[in-house]
Amino acid sequence: MPPIAPGTRDLRLDFFRGLSLWFIFIDHVPGNIMTWLTVRNYGFSDASEIFVFISGYTAAFVYGRVMKERGFIVGAARVLKRAWQIYVAFVFLFVFYVAEISYLATRFQNPLYTEESGFFELLQKPEIVIIEALKLRFLPANVDVLPLYIVLMACFPLILWGLLRRPNLTLAASAIFYAVARYLDWNISLYPWDRYWFFNPFCWQFLFVIGGWCALGGIDKIGRVLRSRAFLALCILFLVYAAVLQLSWLIPGVTRKFPSWMHILPLNKSDLSLFRLAHFLALANVVVRFVPIDATFLRSIWARPAIICGQNSLEIFCLGVFLSFSGHFVITEISSRKYAHFLISLAGVLIMIAVAALMSWYKGLNRRVEKAPPPPAGQKNLEEKVA
Amino acid sequence: MRLLAAAIALLLAGIAPGHAQNCTVNPELVEAPSFLPRVNAAVTKEGKLAILVISAAPSQVGQASGLKSYPSFLETTLKEKLKETNVSVFAFAVPREPIGKVLKALPGALQEHKPDLVIWQTGTIEAIRAMDPDVFGDKLLEGVSLIKADKIDVILMNQQYSPRTDFMFDGTPYTDNMRWVAQSKDISLFNRYEIMKYWADNGVFDLNAMKSDGTYEKLHRCLGGLLADFVLRGASLPGSPDNHRK
């Protein structure tokens, strides 16, 4: 496995983003019992929050420096190039998805599922579906986080400009936008029917901006409160409460025995319910406390698989979506036994690690080639690695 | 690559057990239904039981006795178990329409069929069309309140387990909202998704067939039987052999 890029980078970002990518893959294989190994069942928030927060954090960290040193235009150009890469990845996954559902649409005629077959009405006008997909108004299953990422990155030059000049004001504006969007039910509509984006960008931008705000020094301003024992205890208490509630929800009839003020489930994921947001922030605060930036574990060989996945997040996310389709195919075609769930999840994560190692190797090659003009190359590599 | 896939297939196929056809499910899946006072009173005092099954399923419309879907098997099972009672099941569907249209048709259907129990199957079209789950929950709550206002009992039923299409749309948020409504109104949710998934995972039924393979009727017979049991236990009536609680 290639060595990890040196420097003062916070490896926790890569590690936990890598972990969230594994979780997203495992959770995306329908009915996979291995989801018990992910965070989903143990609290309100899940891997999506981890991914969006860390993406906001790293984007602000990397492009913030570019924008500070080389100005708004260069910084914005770099961000938009990234947005374009994500868009291309989205189109790539759309092709696979359409191939799979078209195959099913022409062959699947089981009378048990006449109602479910209504889904294939989607494909009645392929010429429209393709155009709508290119406009991000038709989304394949499981890629919902990509269009969110594209829109956030497309708007990021302005957000970043604000975060660099007036961080607190920008964060406040983002919070107000979140509140108004939730209150007025703003979202982006989809083709066809009256569908909407699963990750409402008007709401989820708040978490992305919180990540950016933390990366650009905001976290230091409130560090004393976050690190206080009382606040930590409060966070842990909230995490325990969330875990009890979420686990009890999985057993029929248990939650209704709780007092009515505990009847808050299910929480709205599309609009990023405040309970989910609070849960993620509490979780992040506790994790940051117990996994310090210089933890020896992060430099050990055991952390490296997750770290390299986190460093190649876009490619590994797309691979994860593709693997979840394949995993579903294996479950329907070959076996749906628990054993198969385990093998599929394990094989999927191993493939993700292998591909991430290959990607890091390629980047290492590029770095050596670009060594001739050293200063800009160093910067570019860091940017490619982290964002 | 193909060889490897074949080897894995062979390996995994060896694990699936041979079995005799039955309707056994994990008892937790059909446990502790909420009390159905109206059903109890109708059977014990009036000697009749009228059930209305509401859905958006195109294959479930009309007098239950004319169908080979779970409503008709529910009717035959209940008639066997409640010999003294005049049991009738009517399946009412607004085919492939989301809950808003069903809600509009609800008062008329209640007036026409005067049921003692409504079994409301929902959440599929809504999941396919990615309706806002919160809006779905609110509409369902409105509908259930309307039914309960007439002192009619309600059982909710969620989507089927469809392994082929499972990755295209996620029913979980809709089932979660149904559980929320069930909790707020103290009614039961018959978790059809988990029951069918249990059957599929344990090799009771093969739900992967691309075309008709005769599973439809066998599966609906099992569902109807389980549902009849669920109703009898919910109404604390005799006749439930608890044969699935092994």
Structure description:
The complex is a heterodimer of chains A (387) and B (246). Chain A is an all-alpha fold. Helix content of chain A is 70%, strand content 0%. In chain A, helix 11 (304-311) crosses helix 13. The longest helix of chain A has 61 residues, at 47-107. Chain B is of the alpha/beta class and 246 residues long. Chain B is 47% helix and 13% strand. Chain B has nine helices and six strands; from the N terminus they run ααββαβαβααβαβαα. In chain B, strands 2-3-1-4-5-6 form a six-stranded mixed β-sheet, with helices on both faces. In chain B, helix 7 links the parallel strand 5 (153-157) and strand 6 (188-190). Residues 9-20 and 242-246 of chain B have low confidence and may be disordered. Classes of the chains: A mainly alpha (387), B alpha/beta (246). Chains A and B meet through helix 2, helix 12 and helix 13 of A and helix 1, helix 5, helix 6, helix 7 and helix 8 of B.
Put the structure in a nutshell.
The complex is a heterodimer of chains A (387) and B (246). Helices cover 70% and strands 0% of the residues of chain A.
Please report the distance between the alpha carbons of the first and last residues of chain B.
43 Å
The radius of gyration over CA of chain B amounts to 19 Å
Specify the oligomeric state: heterodimer
How would the global form of chain B be characterised? Answer: globular
Order of helices and strands of chain A: HHHHHHHHHHHHHH
The number of helical elements of chain A comes to: 14
Helix residue percentage of chain B: 40-55%
H/E series of chain B: HHEEHEHEHHEHEHH
**Cross-sheet strand order for the largest sheet of chain B:** 2-3-1-4-5-6
**Most extensive chain-chain interface:** A-B, 53 and 59 residues
- Major β-sheet of chain B, in short? 6 strands, mixed
